[in-house]
Amino acid sequence: MSRSELVERSGVSKQQLSRLENGQIRMRLDHLKPFASVLGYTPEQILLWGRYPGTGAIEAGGKLQHVSHETGEVPELNMRAPRGHQTPPTSGESWSFPRSFVAERLHASAARLRVLEVEGDAMVPTLLAGDRVVIDASHKDPTPDGLYALRDAFGGIVVRRLQVLRSARPIRVKIICDNQSHAIEEVPHSQLDVFGKAVCCIKLL
Q: Do 155 and 169 fall within a single domain?
């Protein structure tokens, strides 16, 4: 789309567009609304182009680079299914994420990911009951330190913060709850059953 066509279809004057392009006006979302519907993007996508899921980079000359809006389907695990499965069955529900977001921000493929619903208060305030955590099920080693999904003593899958005690022999791992009213556990690395690494959280605000 040419600049003249953008001005004509958006209803914004050439002078206003020029001031926005040259940084003479501090960009706000309401400035972008007239262009968003014409270009087929949301104001948020244009303002955060290249950093917002589903957008690409800005080419030389300020042209927005076309990106694919294909999505990757990530199944949600059924945490209420009877325990005893090596891997919990899926719930039949799935989450759709832009493939560019999965590849560029999560550094994974949709086939390796699973969505897990948080239960209990062990990870409050970081995670609340009902939050969803996206797990990379191919990441089985607890390094670097961080949030991981692991199997507990009852066969369920829980999210905990893991810290590897690398100087211990044999190597041991601290299993930490962010809720300080819960006790910290410590186990040999060989006894840890990691389901995957937490790479993203979905929560209501």
A: yes
